[in-house]
C-alpha cells in the first residue's frame, strides 16, 4: 500500500505542476484543465488501453504482492 500511496501522491504533484506552469504562462485554469483532457480525446482505443494499463500498473503489482503473501504456506 505504501507504493500505491507514493504513486498517487507523485501523480497528483505532477498534475498540479502541469497546471501551475500553465497558470504561470498566462493560461486560465479552465483552459489548462481542458488541455489535459484533450490529450485523451485524440488517442485511439489501443493507446487509451495502454495508458490505463501503465497508470494502473503500481496498483496491480501491490495487489499481486498481497495475494502472494496470503497464499504462501506458513512454516
Which structural traits does this protein have?
3 helices, elongated, 75 residues, single chain, mainly alpha
Calculate the mean pLDDT score and round it: 85
Number of helices: 3
Most strands sheet: none
Order of helices and strands: HHH
Query: Helical proportion?
Result: over 70%
- Cα gyration radius (Å): 18 Å
Question: How many strand segments?
Answer: 0
The helix/strand class is: mainly alpha
- Portion of residues in beta strands equals under 5%
Unreliable residue stretches = none
Distance between the termini: 25 Å
Q: What shape does the CA trace take?
A: elongated
Number of domains: 1
Describe it.
The chain is an all-alpha fold and 75 residues long. The chain has one domain (2-70). It is 84% helix and 0% strand. It is built from three helices and no strands. It has helices spanning 2-24, 29-41, 45-71. The longest helix is centred in the C-terminal third of the chain and has 27 residues, at 45-71. The two termini are 25 Å apart. The relative contact order is 0.11. The mean pLDDT is 85. The chain crosses the membrane at residues 7-25, 45-64. InterPro entries: YczF (IPR058725). Keywords: Membrane, Transmembrane, Transmembrane helix.
Amino acid at each position: 500500500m505504501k507504493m500505491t500511496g507514493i504513486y498517487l501522491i507523485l501523480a497528483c504533484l505532477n498534475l498540479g505542476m502541469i497546471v501551475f506552469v500553465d497558470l504561470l504562462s498566462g493560461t486560465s485554469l479552465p483552459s489548462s484543465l481542458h488541455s489535459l483532457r484533450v490529450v485523451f480525446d485524440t488517442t485511439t482505443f489501443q493507446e487509451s488501453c495502454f495508458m490505463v494499463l501503465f497508470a494502473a500498473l503500481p496498483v496491480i503489482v501491490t495487489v499481486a504482492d498481497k495475494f502472494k503473501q496470503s497464499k504462501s504456506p506458513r512454516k
